Task: inverse folding
């Protein structure tokens, strides 16, 4: 079984990015769930939800949490989730998701590296 | 404990659906009859969720799910297929056990609890065997019994 993925973002940008990445890639080889955070959400409630999502997604290989901008509520929530096998990567972009999709069989550690690599590689002067 | 609606009319055994889309349509039809929500609306919710990624959870099992406006409690529908089908599964095993969940839009927490609960039940090989060999709705209901759920 593959690593599970949880995407935690402001409003539904995570959903739109995932839809676009899935459409560009052709399919999504992971179990993915989305958690959107809005201004009126209580962070503690969302942390509990995140915790439940992570427990649900982990089929033994752990969960990679992708979140948008560092230092804001979604990333703070992501960091607050307690789990044995979890990695949190901030700075979500399409290039990050697409690079992750390329490596469905990777371990959690290696997949987190691929997420960071893909995210950074997607930023350049054109 | 969560109240959840599941009865004979929401179960289809020896089903002959051949595609993921036809499964989602069949589920929408089964759930529409008991929930009173239109098949189109349920199908749209389930289809929208599948577009984000398959709800296959491995071992031949899928748990399509959606949040639906206008229902008072969660509904479950079960399809057991004669022949496993490609469900964009996350492993090499095609899907022959489909347990579908629709939950009121505002019940986020229940939604997750139910997903976790169903996933836990279906993770057990003994339960999957029982579901695959079930001959009637009662045997399906017995398999899905859990201390977290009350079937209404």
Result:
């Amino acid at each position: 079984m593959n690593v599970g993925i949880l995407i935690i973002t402001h409003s539904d940008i995570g959903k739109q990015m995932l839809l676009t990445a899935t459409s560009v890639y052709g399919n999504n080889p992971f179990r993915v769930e989305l958690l959107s955070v809005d201004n009126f959400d209580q962070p503690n409630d969302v942390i509990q939800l995140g915790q439940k999502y992570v427990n649900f997604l982990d089929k033994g290989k752990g969960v990679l949490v992708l979140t948008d901008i560092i230092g804001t509520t979604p990333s703070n929530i992501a960091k607050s989730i307690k789990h044995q096998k979890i990695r949190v990567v901030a700075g979500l972009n399409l290039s990050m998701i697409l690079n992750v999709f390329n490596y469905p069989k990777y371990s959690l550690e290696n997949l987190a590296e691929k997420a960071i690599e893909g995210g950074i590689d997607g930023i350049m002067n054109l | 404990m969560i109240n959840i609606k599941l009865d004979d009319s929401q179960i289809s055994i020896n089903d002959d659906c051949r595609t993921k889309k036809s499964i989602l349509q069949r589920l929408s039809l089964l759930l529409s009859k008991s929930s009173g929500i239109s098949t189109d609306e349920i199908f749209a919710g389930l289809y929208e969720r599948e577009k984000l990624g398959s709800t296959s959870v491995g071992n031949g099992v899928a748990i399509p799910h959606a949040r639906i406006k206008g229902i008072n409690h969660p509904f479950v529908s079960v399809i057991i297929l004669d022949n496993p089908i490609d469900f964009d599964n996350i492993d090499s095993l095609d899907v022959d056990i489909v347990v579908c969940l629709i939950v009121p839009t505002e019940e986020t927490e229940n939604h997750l609890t139910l997903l976790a609960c169903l996933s836990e039940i279906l993770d057990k090989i003994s339960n999957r065997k029982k579901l695959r060999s079930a001959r009637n709705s009662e045997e399906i209901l017995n398999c899905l019994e859990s201390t977290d759920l009350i079937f209404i």
Notes: Residues 2-143 of chain B form a domain with the Mannitol-specific EII; Chain A fold (CATH 3.40.930.10). The radius of gyration of chain B is 14 Å. The longest strand of chain B covers residues 75-85. The longest helix of chain B spans residues 20-35.
